[in-house]
Amino acid sequence: MTSITSIETRGISLPRLGLGTWRLQGDSGRAAVESALGLGYRHIDTAEMYANEREIGHAIALAGVQRSDIFLVTKVWTNHFRAADARRAAETSLRNLRTDYVDLLLMHFPNESVPLAETLGALAGLLNAGKARAIGVSNFPIPLLEKAITVCPAPIACNQVKFHVGRDQGPLLAFARSHGIIFTAYSPLGLGSLSHHPVLKDIACKHAKNAAQIALRWLVEQDGVIAIPKATTERNLRTNIDIFDFVLDGEDRARLDKARGPGLFAHLASLRRFIVRRQLSGFVLA
Ligand SMILES: NC(=O)c1ccc[n+]([C@@H]2O[C@H](COP(=O)([O-])OP(=O)(O)OC[C@H]3O[C@@H](n4cnc5c(N)ncnc54)[C@H](OP(=O)(O)O)[C@@H]3O)[C@@H](O)[C@H]2O)c1
Known about the structure:
By secondary structure, the protein is an alpha/beta fold. The chain is built from eleven helices and ten strands. It has one domain: TIM Barrel (Alpha-Beta Barrel), CATH 3.20.20.100. It has helices at about 25-40, 55-65, 85-95, 115-130, 140-150, 170-180, 200-205, 210-220, 235-240, 250-260, 260-280; strands at about 5-10, 10-15, 20, 45, 70-75, 105, 135-140, 155-160, 180-185, 225. Helix 3 (about 85-95) links the parallel strand 5 and strand 6. The site of NADP nicotinamide-adenine-dinucleotide phosphate (NAP) has 27 residues, from helix 9.
C-alpha cells in the first residue's frame, strides 16, 4: 500500500527515500553505500555513467541485507541506446552489481539520434526476460515522455528528473501523475545548497529538524514523488533518512512556496557556484 515511506505501482514498491550515488566511488563510495544499508536505506540509485556499480555490488554483498529487500536502480547511458548496445550495457551493469536483475532500469537522458522505440523496445525485452522489474526514463520533458508512453511496449514506471524546493516541476509532475508515472527527484538538496537556506532553516527549528530534512520531507509528502539524496558522511546519511516522524503544515508549505521566487534561485545559484569552485579547487565540503 502506498504510504509516506513507500509507493506501490505496477507490482513494485519503491521506498520514498533512496540513496543517490553519483560521485560515490572507490573505497569511500563502497563504504558510504554499506553504511547507508546499515542505517536502513533500502533504495540505491546508480547508473553505468557513474562508474561505481562494482563498488555498489561489493557494498551490497558486504552489508548482509537480502537482495530482495533492496530496490536497486541503474541507467543505460546515451551512447548505448541502439538495441544490442542497451542489452549489453544492462548485462554489464548486472554483472558489476552482482545481481540477476535490477528493480528499475532507466534511459539516463534523451538521445534523439536513436529512435526511442528501439531503446525502449530493448528495455522492455530485458523486463520480459526478468532482468529488470520495471523500466523508465530520466530527464524526459513532457513531449518526449508522451512519445515514450506511446512507443514503449511496456509501461513507463518512472521519470527521474531534477526536482527540489527551488525548482518548479509542476506541469511535468502533473503529467507524470496523470499517467501513473513515479517522479524521482534527483538533486533533491540542490547539491547541498538548500541546507543553508534561511527559510528552510527557520522551518527546521520549529520541527527540531534541519534544513536538508525539510527539503526532503517537502518532496516525499507529495503524491507520486520519491527523493534520492546523495550523501557520503555518516552524519548526512543518518539525517536524510530521519524524515518520517514529522509533518509539514500549511503554513510551512506556504512559506516554502513563497521562498521559491527569484530570491531562492539567486541564493541557490550563488551557492552552487561556490560549491563548484570548492570542488574544482580540490576542497571537500564538510
Ligand atoms: N538522472 C540524472 O540525470 C541525475 C542527475 C544528477 C543526479 N542524479 C541522482 O540523484 C542523486 C542526488 O543528486 P545530487 O548528488 O546531484 O545532489 P543532492 O543529493 O541534492 O546533494 C548532494 C550533496 O549534498 C550534501 N548533503 C547530503 N546530505 C546533506 C545534509 N543532510 N546536509 C547538508 N548537506 C548534505 C552531500 O554531501 P556529502 O556527500 O559530503 O555527504 C553532497 O555534497 C545523485 O547522486 C544521483 O544518484 C541523477
